[in-house]
Design a protein that fits this description.
The protein has 3 helices and 10 strands. A hairpin with an 8-residue loop joins strand 6 and strand 7.
Amino acid sequence: MPGMHDPTLFLSALALLVMLTVSPSGHAEQGSAAPDTSLLPFPVDPSTMAHMRGYVGQSCDLLTAPQSDAWTGFSPIKGFSAVVAQGGTVRPMMRDQSRFAFLTTASEGGCRISDVVVLPDPGTANVFEQCEASGSGSPDSIAMRQIGERKLVAYWTVDTLKHVLVRRRPPESREKLHCREPDPVG
């Protein structure tokens, strides 16, 4: 039986701690307390995720020109609309059976895909919402829940400085968090 000073046991525990405190997009939540399973990544094949990360930095034209070779195999997720939020637009897309949210941001160099995260499968969450928690009156985060349920299954804020989606624990109370399905974006 391995002892307290066994380096294998220590490294395994350290790897588990890191895995539990990093969001699915690879961005650690600031100020995290104890590890929480609500921040575990949603399942996706690692090679598929590596392929999705390859779109980061590419032109937004990939998202608006589905006929392009680079975008072959993607489709909008039925019933989901893009969210125009502070810091960019979040576009839900599907490839094969995997669902993703792409954050696009505009700058002097034009519109770019700045981040991508895996969305939960339809059995876990099937409503995509825009949320506003900052009191500004405009969306600053996205969330997912089951139809007919108020409890959020997944929640991301838009980091406007780093241009990334940051997975966070869903708030316990929805009093200060106002979420609704987004209006269709043209």
